[in-house]
C-alpha cells in the first residue's frame, strides 16, 4: 500500500506474483498521491493488480501482465496507462519522450486510460530525475526475474 499525502512514488522493477489483489494499492480517499509505475512484472494473480484511488495521479508504462485476472481494479483519477502505440507517441509532446506500452497476455481487460493531466503533472518532475525512463515491455520480464528476489540485493 502506497499512501502519503503529497508523495511522489516510483514503483519500478518489482515482481508481483501469486497474490490475490491490491498489488499495488496506491492512494487513499482524499489523499493526493502522484505515482509512476513502470518495468514491473505481474504474474499469476487472482483478483486485481493496480488498485488506484481517485485522488491519485498515475502513469503506468512498460509493465507486463501475465495471467492476471484484472490488471487494474479502480481508475477514476487522472491515469495514463499507455494502452497502445498511439498513446505511447502522445507522451512525447509532454514528457519529451515516448512512453512504453504495457503488455497484457492471458489476463483480464486493459482499459484505455489516457488522461493527459497525469502526464502534465509528472512533467514537473522529469527535470529533477524523479521520473524513471522505462524499458520496453519486451525486456521487463528478463530484467525483473534476473534481479528480483533472494540473492539479488
Topology:
Blueprint: E1 8-12, E2 15-17, E3 25-26, E4 33-38, E5 41-52, E6 56-61, E7 64-74, E8 79-80, H1 85-90, H2 92-95, E9 103-105, H3 117-126, H4 137-147
Parallel strand pairs: 1-4, 2-5, 3-5, 4-6, 5-7, 6-8, 7-9
Description:
By secondary structure, this protein is α/β, with parallel strands linked by helices. The chain has one domain. 20% of the residues lie in helices and 33% in strands. It has 4 helices and 9 strands. The strands form 2 sheets. Strands 2, 3, 5, 7 and 9 form a 5-stranded parallel sheet that branches. It is globular and about 35 Å long. 37% of the residues are buried.
Major β-sheet annotation: 5 strands, parallel
Helix segment tally: 4
Number of domains: 1
Q: Which stretches are poorly predicted, pLDDT < 50 over at least 5 residues? A: none
Helix amount: 10-25%
Q: On the 0-100 scale, what is the average pLDDT? A: 92
Q: Which structural class should the secondary elements be placed in?
A: alpha/beta
Cα-based radius of gyration, to the nearest Å: 14 Å
Overall 3D geometry?
Answer: globular
Give keywords.
five-stranded parallel β-sheet, four-stranded parallel β-sheet, 9 strands, alpha/beta
Amino acid at each position: 500500500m502506497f499512501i502519503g499525502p503529497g508523495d511522489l512514488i516510483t514503483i519500478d522493477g518489482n515482481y508481483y506474483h501469486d497474490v490475490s489483489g491490491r498489488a499495488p494499492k496506491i492512494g487513499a480517499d482524499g489523499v493526493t498521491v502522484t505515482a509512476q509505475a513502470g518495468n514491473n512484472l505481474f504474474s499469476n494473480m487472482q483478483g486485481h493488480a493496480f488498485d488506484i484511488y481517485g485522488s491519485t495521479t498515475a502513469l503506468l508504462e512498460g509493465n507486463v501482465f501475465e495471467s492476471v485476472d484484472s490488471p487494474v481494479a479502480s481508475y477514476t483519477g487522472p491515469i495514463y496507462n499507455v494502452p497502445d502505440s498511439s498513446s505511447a507517441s502522445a507522451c512525447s509532446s509532454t514528457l519529451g519522450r515516448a512512453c512504453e506500452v504495457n503488455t497484457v497476455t492471458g489476463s483480464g481487460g486493459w482499459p484505455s486510460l489516457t488522461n493527459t493531466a497525469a502526464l502534465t503533472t509528472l512533467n514537473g518532475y522529469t527535470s529533477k530525475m524523479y521520473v524513471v525512463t522505462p524499458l520496453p515491455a519486451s525486456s521487463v520480464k528478463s530484467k525483473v526475474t534476473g534481479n528480483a528476489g533472494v540473492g539479488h540485493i
